[in-house]
């Protein structure tokens, strides 16, 4: 039984290569959930295998800047030379339908969402160690040595902001990390301030 009509907004961040995409896929493969992934827009070129409209909406810088000026993003940020943003209309639409909307975004954008959506839940994924992070970026094989260096330096600046999140999840094992995130989402549903008004309303209508 669902107590709140409006869906929960879940923001997941973590350094590049920590396994956000991998853990998110494991999360969505779990049974009995109402999660929707918010596909971001980016000016980064697609990686081999990435599909427009599934992994990202791939657009030009001009198109992206036009959308910023039209106020079409819930948040946006520049990350190692490319723009990334969350289309506002789709997120609102899904939350109104009672869906749990998952954003997988970097910290600067997450902090913008923190200002706008007070009852969103913020989860920061960390690697079991710095060496593990480096190894994962190498293993993924999608970035040049120079880009890996930039992503590792960026990770150092992101770790400092981890305390601004509600939860820290260690991605030691993909399925364990996904389980922990699902447990957090379920617990957030039961939070008093989130559900009490909806429950009182339901009692009145009962
Ligand atoms: N602020 C913001 N960051 C995003 C968005 N979409 C993706 N990102 C983040 O941008 C960073 C770079 O993403 P990407 O180029 O796909 O590389 P990855 O981190 O190696 O997966 C990651 O931290 C993503 O979480 C978005 O819509 N807004
Ligand atoms: N728990 C884990 N243990 C070992 N390797 C992992 C784990 N999670 C992810 N990886 C690997 O690390 C690399 C980066 O993962 P990815 O999901 O692309 O990270 P992100 O989306 O955070 O940039 C991939 O090659 C992925 O298979």
From TrEMBL:
Keywords assigned by UniProt, alphabetized: ATP-binding, Cytoplasm, Kinase, Nucleotide-binding, Transferase
Catalysis performed (reactions): GMP + ATP = GDP + ADP
Alphabetical list of SUPFAM superfamilies matching this protein: P-loop containing nucleoside triphosphate hydrolases
Subcellular localization, as worded in the UniProt entry: Cytoplasm
CDD domains hit by this protein: GMPK
Key word Iron-sulfur present: no
Residues covered by the Guanylate kinase-like domain: 7-186
KW ATP-binding (keyword) present: yes
Taxonomy, superkingdom: Bacteria
Alphabetical list of Gene3D superfamilies matching this protein: Guanylate Kinase phosphate binding domain, P-loop containing nucleotide triphosphate hydrolases
Ligand binding (ATP): 14-21
Function summary: Essential for recycling GMP and indirectly, cGMP.
Family indicated by similarity: Belongs to the guanylate kinase family.
Protein name: Guanylate kinase
Organism: Paracholeplasma manati
Gene: gmk
